């Protein structure tokens, strides 16, 4: 395809409220199974909040943290914990993105609990989990992604469900 023949529009998959609700329900179920009160945030590809649920007994700081994790994962197309994972995490001292979280004060999270939502290879949003330890937040976040995968596989679509997602 030459430059003059290039498409000027892209067909995109859009995350809808129904998908966000499905993911939240799966995340809550996993949270209850592992006995941790979590806050779950789902954002679209632009980092805009679609749905948020703070479980009973979850920390009052959870909504802001979960939203920041989801925003970061969607916007940077990677799981948030990968920013500071040794040895090449880009936000580690001396690496290329050291201090990146200061560019978006209160909106950018570089610790565990945020995962991009990747459908058929395209980042369509992010999920942020806050309230447990890293292992718990990861289990809850991947449960949300797995629920979306189970729902979309009937339509022949794929969802990345592993914890370490980088697009």
Automatic annotation (TrEMBL):
<dbReference type="InterPro" id="IPR038084">
    <property type="entry name" value="PduO/GlcC-like_sf"/>
</dbReference>
<feature type="coiled-coil region">
    <location>
        <begin position="10"/>
        <end position="37"/>
    </location>
</feature>
<dbReference type="InterPro" id="IPR052517">
    <property type="entry name" value="GlcG_carb_metab_protein"/>
</dbReference>
<protein>
    <submittedName>
        <fullName>Heme-binding protein</fullName>
    </submittedName>
</protein>
<dbReference type="InterPro" id="IPR005624">
    <property type="entry name" value="PduO/GlcC-like"/>
</dbReference>
<keyword id="KW-0175">Coiled coil</keyword>
<dbReference type="Pfam" id="PF03928">
    <property type="entry name" value="HbpS-like"/>
</dbReference>
């Amino acid at each position: 395809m030459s430059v003059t023949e290039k498409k000027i529009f892209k067909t995109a998959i859009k995350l809808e409220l129904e998908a966000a609700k499905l993911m939240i329900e799966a995340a809550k179920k996993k949270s209850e199974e592992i006995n941790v009160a979590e806050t779950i945030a789902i954002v679209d590809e632009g980092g805009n909040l679609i749905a948020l649920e703070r479980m009973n007994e979850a920390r009052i700081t959870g909504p802001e943290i979960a939203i920041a994790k989801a925003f970061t994962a969607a916007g940077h197309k990677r799981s948030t914990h990968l920013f500071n994972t040794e040895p090449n995490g880009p936000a580690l001292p001396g690496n290329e993105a050291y201090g990146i979280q200061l560019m978006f004060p209160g909106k950018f999270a570089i610790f565990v609990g945020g995962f991009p939502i990747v459908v058929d290879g395209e980042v369509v949003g992010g999920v942020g989990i806050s309230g447990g330890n890293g292992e718990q937040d990861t289990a809850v976040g991947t449960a949300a992604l797995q629920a979306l995968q189970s729902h979309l596989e009937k339509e022949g679509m794929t969802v990345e469900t592993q914890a370490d997602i980088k697009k």
